[in-house]
Write a structure and sequence with these properties.
By secondary structure, the protein is of the alpha+beta class. It has two domains: about 180 residues, Rossmann fold, CATH 3.40.50.150; about 180 residues, Hnrnp arginine n-methyltransferase1 (Distorted Sandwich). The chain contains ten helices and 17 strands. Strands 8, 9, 10, 12, 13 and 14 form a six-stranded antiparallel β-sheet that branches. A five-stranded parallel β-sheet has the order 5-4-3-6-7, with helices on both faces. Strand 15 and strand 16 form a beta hairpin. Helix 4 packs parallel to helix 6. About 5% of the residues have low confidence. Keywords: Methyltransferase, S-adenosyl-L-methionine, Transferase.
Amino acid sequence: MVNDAMDIETAEKNLKQLDHAEQHYFNRQVWKKKKKLCVFFVGGIFANTQPTAITIMEMLKDEVRTRSYMNAIVQNKHIFKDKVVLDVGCGTGILSMFAAKAGAKHVIGVDMSTIIFKAREIVEVNGLSDKITLIQGKMEEITLPFPQVDIIISEWMGYFLLYESMLDTVLYARDKYLVKDGLIFPDKASIYVAGIEDGDYKDEKIGFWDNVYGFNYSPLKETALSEPLVDTVEMKAVVTDPSLVLTLDLYKCTVEDLAFSCPFDLVARRDDFIHALVAWFDIDFTACHKTVRFSTGPHTKYTHWKQTVFYLKDMLTVQQGEKIECSLHNRPNEKNRRDLDIKIEYRLETEDPTRKAEGTCLYKMC
């Protein structure tokens, strides 16, 4: 226990020596959302101090996330049997233990945060210490006990898939350690966008600044509009068909692919108003005998990723079948690559000149 305490103290000192952007990444992000406090975790990485049992439980109880990984690994023992597996951002070690139970020869879990020390205890009490090695440190700086691995597993996704994500670290591990024809779990990710009606909350979030105890705070409206909201969106609020804006093949994609631009159209399903665009992502494990897939969209069960809402400057009035021409431009922030700068352009052309609208909105996820 004394050695563990010394290790944790050393790890926390190392975290404090990172530059500001990296410290920001490895710290837990706590955001207050519409109706409740949402604790944000990415890829198994927790705070640089010990997280509470409640926060760990919230992640593990996300059944869509956890059961999808469990099914992809445990139901494919023929893939994992006698393989060396790397778990990038292992957190409490749940994916590492799934891999060990699936028959892996050995599993290496890597995480920067001090949760790794508690993960070692969890692995030990489950009798898997001989099968799992857990390493505290940055993937780019550590040395693995094996020169190559057969399979990489990672829960690397962030809000809007890419915000605060660990994908660049997974790609580094792929290029450095994965054997030729090795496997990645999951190996495909896709982002979708749709238009939604959300007038009540837009009035609450954006209209609030028009009158603050009798004062005009409208200069803050632009700031409020530039901040995407992470929250759950009900399916009944979705006005348009979804459009695919990004697909990532983890065997082929590069860090440069995380900056992208995509034109897309949104077709109205019914007569309604559109106040915002909503984005979500789907994840695929295609290496499985039968592909395992899960979605974080409004049409399916709740996940801790929820959805990401981008409020528009205009309220669009659409009729069924009408098309909104859009484009989405995403790039990592120059100062902190794990933050995102996003631009959305939209244009509604109708025969009714009173309903024509177009605009450009800039957003920052930071």
